[in-house]
Amino acid sequence: MSTTVQKGKFITIEGIEGVGKSSNVNLIADLIQKAGNQVVVTREPGGTPIAEAIRKVLLAEYDEEIFGQTELLLLYAARIQHVEHVIKPALAEGKWVVCDRFVDATYAYQGAGRGIPIEKIDSLHQWALGDFVPDCTIILDASPEIAFERIKKNRDLDRFEKEKIFFFQRIRQQYLQIAGRDKQRYRIVDASRPLKDVQDIIRGIIVNIF
Ligand code: TMP
Q1: Closest CA to 25 of 5, 46, 7
Q2: What is the pTM of this model?
Q3: Does the beta carbon of 45 lie inside 6 Å of ligand 1?
Q4: What is the tens place of the pLDDT at every residue in 118-147?
């Protein structure tokens, strides 16, 4: 185990449902810890009591249509709480932060998925968080067909998971497009490969960040 403590980095993991984000978040956290760093594992929407309460609202189903704008504003309300109370303080203490989804999910789900113009999300992000973005974003990529086979059939699906396959196809394309614009920050990992291969690739990415 290395004894050199690195300056904290902010790593996010993205992808459509069923690509294996959760197990890989744990792998990343483990690697960072084994290298002698403190790590905070968190998620969006969520990560603080208020943000987790907003998450419940976002994932639940009501007998009332929820507009794309409402979704977007709720996500940013949660995100501000999370960034200011959890992420920035942890980074300031030199900890690493690994977050299951972050701002790219908004561009993918609310932008491509719900059809909200990207410039609106850009200006909301700028107003809410300025230039605050992750140091590295890993996008786990797989077709919705493959990803959905992995979602356990015997659990209740949330409001997003009940969307049709086209919704997830648009989201997947948007993730790939975003990643293509900044090869420094984004890494695309083929999540349709066996878990061991995916983990080996992720190990390589994290070791490179050290
Ligand atoms: P999870 O299933 O990864 O925990 O995320 C909950 C849902 O929230 C997921 O279906 C994607 C959705 N989501 C958005 O629509 N926009 C966002 O910005 C984030 C962070 C999540």
Answers
A1: 46
A2: 0.94
A3: yes
A4: 999 999 999 999 999 999 999 999 999 988
